[in-house]
Amino acid sequence: MKSALVFGTGVSGTAAAMLLLHRGWKVHVSSKNETPDISQLRAAGAEVFVGDPVEAAARFVSSGISDALVVLSPGIPIKAPEVLFCKQAGLRVIGELQLGAEMLRSRLIAITGSKGKSSLVKLISDTLNLNGRTALPCGNYGLALCEVADLSEPPQVAVAECSSFQLETIDAFRPVTAAVLNLSRDHLDRHGTMENYRDVKLDLFRNMGKGDLALLPAASGDDAVLLACFRERYDFSATTFGCGDDAQWRYRRGAVENAQTGFRAELPGSYFDNDVLGPAAALACAVLTNEGLSPAAIEAGFRNFAPLAHRMQLVGELNGVRFVDDSKATSIAALLAGARMTPPPVYLIAGGRLKEKIVTTGKEVVTSGVKKAYLIGECMKEMESAWFPALPVVLCGNLHEALLSALKDVPRGGTILLSPGTASFDQFTDYKQRGEVFTRLVGDLIIKAEKTAEK
Fold first, then answer.
1. Which residue of 107, 137, 346, 365 lies most exposed, with the fewest beta carbons within 10 A?
2. Contact, 110 vs 89, CB < 8 A?
3. Which residues share a beta bridge with 179?
4. Cα angle for residues 162, 164, 170 (degrees, 5° grid)
5. pTM here?
6. For residue 315, what pLDDT is reported?
7. How many angstroms from the chain centroid is the CA of residue 388?
8. Contacts of 374 (CB under 8 A, 6+ apart)
9. CA-CA distance, 290 to 284, in Å (whole number)?
10. Closest CA to 68 of 19, 166, 1, 168
């Protein structure tokens, strides 16, 4: 009987363990703490060790199991002591994403990038389903890939959002289509440098070759470095997308075109019809065309797309003022993108726990359409120092005070945008709770205004 040690009992670790159990493996699971999933794993036949993961690794190795497999949840760094212990013992160490791909019976499309991945994965999946193909979003968004591989009736296509944490632990991973949507500073606390972060993203293509579709942005800055590094590293060609004339799949206001093939899809007024998400629209058209969809079928996907919660989501309007929840914007680059997507004037609520040093200036924030910023959380004074006086700011402390303060200033036709540019863990459990609190506060304001108007 084949044996495996799975580290972690979150969504990914549990999915990996259950997949292996269903395939007849002897499964050992390591968890630092008791979790709700442990009883399920024990009931399914897994041997669970709760405590020091290095001790769990030592027990597994000392049992004398040869040719065993070690599977990591994405949250476990490859340099963690337990991982190094297993590697030194000569065991194969992979991530849940790799395991799922090996046992998958569906076509695999893989998308990575720094921002906007989830919306793109949803667009591709929804459009395939709308046009008669069965597709599931998975990976870092949707189901874990191992859950898709474990389905008795798998979809025709699995569309996987791949985080850099997941890509650290692939070895034989080979999708039929893979893309890096963009590259900006993120997760440097894990990867150390932008070069390391970029190289992990490019690992997505490591086992691909002729006949597979590799997609990269044709753009300036860090994105242009991606294409140059890809060409140095691989001996097959990448297809490009973007907004410039050098892109093979090009977004123009209201449409995506490919001059080489004569392709054109109209998307006027859709969620993706702007300079920020236009490159993602171009990428989606390339992927969906490769899956056999016509321009008309792709256009239907854009028309019917419903944005994900907490991603540029309109959550209310009051006296001509729009309230937009972009709580998923946890980096400064995502904050700037959200501001550029919003018609000016923008009254920005930002702040929380920083994931990066602020190198963006107040002038750059103003250029993105922001009239004034209302700062909350741990980093509000750091944001003030970086952005004031080029950008007017108000130190508010918490979300409720920021919303009330912004409402005093915003004119009719303006937008109050929650796009924090930070992690949420200083004041909230996650970005979802932060967005839900914002939505509830907006709802309370609207109800109060309606009651006042009735009097």
1. 107
2. no
3. 111, 215
4. 75
5. 0.88
6. 96
7. 30
8. 347, 348, 349, 350, 393, 394, 396, 402, 403, 405, 406
9. 10
10. 1
Q: DSSP of 174-195, one letter per residue?
A: --SEEEE----S--HHHH-SHH
Residue 14's identity, in one-letter code, is T
Both structure tokens of 91? 């065991």
Peptide bond into 217 cis (omega under 30): no
Indicate the Cα dihedral angle 261, 264, 265, 268, nearest 10°: 150
**pLDDT tens column, 104-113:** 999 999 999 9
Q: Burial, 43: exposed, middle or buried (Cβ in 10 Å; 0-12, 13-18, 19+)?
A: exposed
222 — pLDDT class (breaks 50, 70, 90): low
The pLDDT value given to residue 63:
84
Contact present, 435 and 310 (Cβ < 8 Å): yes
Residue ranges of alpha helices (H) inside 305-377 are 332-341, 362-367
Residue pLDDT, tens place only, 42-78? 999 999 999 999 999 999 998 877 679 999 999 999 9
- DSSP element (H, E) containing 19: helix 11-22
What does the pLDDT average to over 80-84? 97
Give the whole-angstrom CA distance, residue 279 versus residue 327.
22
* Peptide bond before residue 344 is cis, with ω within 30 degrees of 0: no
Instruction: Give the integer Cα–Cα distance in Å for 338 and 341.
Output: 5
- According to DSSP, residue 3 is labeled E
Task: Output the six-digit token pair for 256.
Answer: 């995506």
User: Would you state the pLDDT for residue 43?
Assistant: 96
**What are the residues whose beta carbons fall under 8 Å from the beta carbon of 254, sequence distance 6 or more?**
266, 267, 268, 269, 273
Dmax (CA) of the chain = 78
Whether residue 220 is predicted with pLDDT greater than 70 in this model: the reply is: no
Q: Span 17-39, mean pLDDT?
A: 94
User: Which tokens belong to 313?
Assistant: 């989501």
In a 10 Å sphere around its CB, with 0-12 CB exposed, 13-18 middle and 19+ buried, how is residue 393 labelled? buried
**Torsion angle of the four alpha carbons 47, 50, 51, 55, in this order, in degrees rounded to the nearest 10:** 0
Using an 8 Å Cβ cutoff, are 57 and 141 in contact?
no
